Amino acid sequence: MSGTRPQIEVNGRRYAWPEAPTVVVCIDGSEPAYIEEAVKAGAAPYLQRITTQGTDLRADCIVPSFTNPNNLSIVTGCPPSVHGISGNYFLDPDSGGEVMMNDPKFLRVPTIFQAFQEAGAKIAVVTAKDKLRRLLGHGLAFGEGGAVCFSAETSDRATLAANGIEGAVGMVGMPVPDVYSAELSEFVFAAGVKLMERDRPDIMYLSTTDYIQHKHAPGTAAANALYAMMDGYLARLDHLGAVIALTADHGMNAKHDTAGRPNVIYLQDRLDDWLGMGAARVILPITDPYVEHHGALGSFATVYLGQGADVVADRLRALDGIDYVAPNGEACAAFELPGDRMGDLVVVSAKGVVIGTSEARHDLSALDAPLRSHGGIAEQIVPLILNRIVAGLEGERRLRNFDAFDLALNHAVADSTGPSTNPGRQKTLPA
């Protein structure tokens, strides 16, 4: 920590002032095997170096293992029980309507970015999709000398100007990519490198898309090509002197049978059959505007019942492919979720199974590959990798993806990317 800068306290945690530009990267949908296989194939030499000479850990993400609750956990340093973002989509108790959870009004605490900017730090945030941009940029001051926050989807001049980066496309040197493409993630990294070269922000956050991971398993040519692309940009950020922490919002698993058909439990249809039409309401927090690659099918659901929850829970537990059913209080305590934004029951399916509402409500015509998806406990383990050795971690500490800023700012040892004496995955110095 700089001798002239105080530690920054936000959401009950204290963070040291960055001694070097600090970059946290959320690789969307990156189960650890993607990096491991890319390294094994020789496609990611930089990642091979930092996983052997820096810090290579595993952490738990938030369940439901979806994009919005985990990105907001990473950038606030706390779980959804504190910050309030429980999914990509939820039943708003104030309006009674099903809505996207991308409005900053749903966020209950400040971000790490806001706290550091208020103390004088220079902030840059680049995300793949607009569904996160407003949440990640909440509370930041833009304009001349202010923060930069934009998405790879953002192309209109007014939005770019309002978020501090009017010349984004020209700066990056890439056209605005299609939302369903690997290039969307490359735009994020290319922008990150250009911003580091131009502005040298104190804190940068980069968040990608999981389009490739939804279609391609670890070790496939397309997956290795994606990680080879990221590897090159990460090496450039390292060369520019950045402390880098890599994590993910969730993992990814195959959710189809041997014939390539999705393994789906249509939960609303089951409940309608058992209880009558309209007696129960199933909400799928995976739902967002980008459903072509997953059909709004994930492994987590919440159910609004009103009465008979215990009986329904028992019947759901008996279904093949359901791994977890619990009432609101128990589930929210277990998964650190806000009880007022979940239903009467929480339902999690097995590793290879997804949950739908009614079959008629899911359009799977755009699925051009066997379904891969996420949302459950099976997708909870994610990488937590730094290009520095970390010191001072308690031996029994449960690591979370939302510890990324803590490790990067409070535990990374300066200039410590030399060879590690520990051949294992967790390369840390003792507390």
Report on the architecture of this protein.
The chain is of the alpha/beta class and 431 residues long. The chain is 31% helix and 19% strand. It contains 15 helices and 21 strands. A seven-stranded mixed sheet has the order 4-19-10-3-9-7-8, sandwiched between helices. A hairpin with a 6-residue loop joins strand 5 and strand 6. Helix 1 crosses helix 11 (221-239) and helix 3 (67-76) packs parallel to helix 6. The longest helix has 19 residues, at 221-239. The protein is globular. The two termini are 18 Å apart. The model is unreliable at 418-431 (pLDDT under 50).
Concise structural overview:
31% of the residues lie in helices and 19% in strands. The chain is of the alpha/beta class.
Q: Rg to the nearest angstrom?
A: 21 Å
Low-pLDDT stretches are 418-431
Strand order of the largest sheet: 4-19-10-3-9-7-8
Approximate strand percentage: 15-25%
Biggest sheet record: 7 strands, mixed
